[in-house]
Amino acid sequence: MRLFVLTALTMVAFAANSILNRWALVDGGIDAGTFAIVRLASGAAMLALLAVAARGRLQLGGGGGRVTGVLSLILYIYGFSLAYVSLDAGVGALILFGTVQVTMFAGALRDGARLPPRRVIGAALAFAGLVWLLWPGTGPQVSVFHGAMMAAAGLGWGIYSLAGRGEADPLMATAANFMLAVPVGLVLSLAFFGAQMQIATPGLMLAVLSGAVTSGLGYALWYTVLPRLEASVAAVAQLTVPVIAMAGGFLLLAEVPSLGVVLAAAVVLGGVAFSILPQRR
């Protein structure tokens, strides 16, 4: 029961990142670049504290793998924030989740993994659902640019996940990646968003909450429960994130998904579920 509760809390935290980001950009008086750097810095501070408390030290080195981690994290954080200038919380979470799964599938192919037919079919279905959702002039009306930004964020998080599979200490590695990404993010925010920078207290508080709590504590909690979950259970649990984000967007932001979005979500999540659920013998 305790494991179930911790897993559920983690999924809520992941979904809350979408809700908080969208909320801040719509009603919080903060721009996407400022939200991104505040979220990144707050997450870095929280993860550093957790790493020192748990390990008694903070190690930033990591060679070439650290460079990949930092750059893919930047792509995720900034693509995520830019996407929510336009996308509803649930739609963004769906695009992010679907793209991450497709990226992980591509990574398995690159590594020469032998994939069962059901996983290939499931990945193809999920990709088809994303194409339908984002294709201009057909299906749900979603901003192509902002949808592409979220797809870039999903690509970044997928690469980040693939690069981190060999990390002996995921918490320490994530803390290091966040801390090293802060100066890079600060330069990006000042260079590309400095002219339209907006900083209001409500948006600033939502960004800190997203960085320190739903990102920093959320990731730390995930790394705590993940080793105790079967791979299929962990994958299925993540299917709930877009659904929770859609529910939160409806309750907190009055976002009502269209029928097209619901159908596209069913295709994406159905494809992922078909791919990852174990086949009964």
Automatic annotation (TrEMBL):
Keywords: Membrane, Transmembrane, Transmembrane helix. InterPro entries: AA-Vitamin_Transporters (IPR050638), EamA_dom (IPR000620), EmrE-like (IPR037185). It is a multi-pass membrane protein. The keyword Cell inner membrane does not apply. The chain crosses the membrane at residues 34-54, 66-85, 91-108, 120-138, 144-163, 175-193, 199-221, 233-253, 259-277. It comes from the Bacteria. This is DMT family transporter. Pfam families: EamA (PF00892). The lineage of its organism: Bacteria, Pseudomonadati, Pseudomonadota, Alphaproteobacteria, Rhodobacterales.
